[in-house]
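Dear colleague,

Following up on yesterday's call, I've attached the two folding results inline so they're easy to grep. Please treat them as preliminary; we haven't cross-checked anything against experimental data yet. The first protein's sequence and structure tokens come first.
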Amino acid sequence: MTTTTQSKEKAEPVAAPSEISLRDWFATHALGFGFDWTNVHETGGYSEAAQVAYEIADAMLAERDKP
């Protein structure tokens, strides 16, 4: 799988590591979307963050499989 990153000069392809599943890759990237990280270390919310990330990843995979 390949994605792109934006730099000031041009977009450069970045490959996802082959050792992880697409679900894991989506979950990793989902961690950056809208999750409030300000108190997660104080509240022990890491499990919640992981759960939400995988829920988002599962939704992304379901959308991907639609015709």
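Below is the second protein, in the same order (sequence, then structure):
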Amino acid sequence: MNSPKRKSTKPLLILLLVFVLPVVAAKLVLSMNLYHGGATNKGELLMPDTTYSQLDMSNPHPKSWQMIYLLPAHCDSPCLNRLYILHQSHIALGRDQLRVTPIILLQENSDRSALEGFDFATAKASRDVSALLAQQQLIIVDPLGAMVMRYQQVDTKDQQVLLGKAMVADLRKMLKLSRIG
């Protein structure tokens, strides 16, 4: 005789596995730190609350993006290379040059003779800004005065050229996305 057919649970289990397995796998990968998100920036992002006003300094060029560098007391060969790369990076921005101002921050003992041959804007650095830039970094500042990205000191000229290219690439991305400055 005809007996009632048992409904199979196999399709239900397969369907459940198809939807649940990827979620479980993703959770495991993220919890075990096996996935490192892609970052396209080449510089080091700074904390969002790092601003001129927090560092007890007024914004030397409001409404303009800035590349800042603290001129040391003695400007040796890597320092001169850094000034040259800063100048060349500004030129490499092309049509966006007018939106970005390279600024050299000065202290009382800064080696001003190193600036001969360059046409940089200068500003007096506060003690807090000098402490932040003590390792000869280059920093990108947005038009509102927030310090956005830092580029660590490098020694060789080839590394400095790569640093300049990285800074220009990051600046172009920020300028493209920016609605200010």
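For the second protein, one point worth flagging: Helices lie at 10-31, 77-92, 127-132, 157-177.

Best wishes,
A.L.
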